[in-house]
Amino acid sequence: MxxxxxxxxxxxxxxxxxxxxxxxxxxxxxxxxASGWKLASAVSNAGGLGIIGAGSMYPHVLREHIQQCKxxxxxxxxxxxxxxxxxxxEHVQTIIEEKVPIVFTSAxxxxxxxxxxxxxxxxxxxxxxxxxxxKKCEEAGVDAVVAEGFEAGGHNGREETxxxxxxxxxxxxxxxxxxxxxxIATGRGMLAVMALGAEGxxxxxxxxxxxxASSHIHFKEAIIATNEGDTVLSLKRLTPVRLIxxxxxxKVAEAESKAATTEELQELLGRGRAKKGMFEGDMIEGExxxxxxxxxxxxxxxxxxxVADMWTEFKAAAKDPFSY
Length: 324
What we know:
The chain is α/β, with parallel strands linked by helices.
């Protein structure tokens, strides 16, 4: 199968940019404690697709963020909706009432809510970590799929398939539009995944290190300080999550080395651990979720500049991929 794309005077034309009504095939990930309305609207205004991360929000807070985002941009934006969220019915109702145009679902069965969302004219995208589940998404009627590789930050697939291997496998398995995620923070990274069959790139870690991200400045500074090997996929017996190594991670690693039970790991994790780290700035006891690509992120810059820099590099690399 061949999926075409072409540069235009103002951006790029392919199935992803047409589906979302955006200028560039750059999608900001819906990250808990980082992607509120300020980041989402900034990315959308810059020509990408901004996403509000609903996973850390109470229903009334999500409504406030959607309303603020609509005031801050007249461009398309989306909401990321983890399907395991306890207030899922309220979130879905809020999204429908507020006429959110696009929803990215994750962490659950896409059949559960896709039909209801699409009944209300909402574009539905689902996040997967394997070709098998990508096929299930197509069968469920989603409009596009995000295939997220092992390199990604936050909650991750148990298969530990890298983006380089995952994208070709998913491309072979489905015919609907495909977005790549995991390890992408540059224009060259975006070109690489598109050469493998993706039609857009979802970017998380790079957008955490922006002034508009709601994550704590201490977390942003910790990301900038990371080097290769400073993040690890951990808590595999619960839900695999990629973390920056800190005292909390060391406690988890020690418990896992002693064959801790699921219950013991859950007790160690407790409640609010991600909020403590990423939002409140506790770099010692907090859960610090970020991707492997953090090792090459060395500054905090505006979201619009991230989009512009990625697009400029993408165009230059597409024109001459062997120059660096």
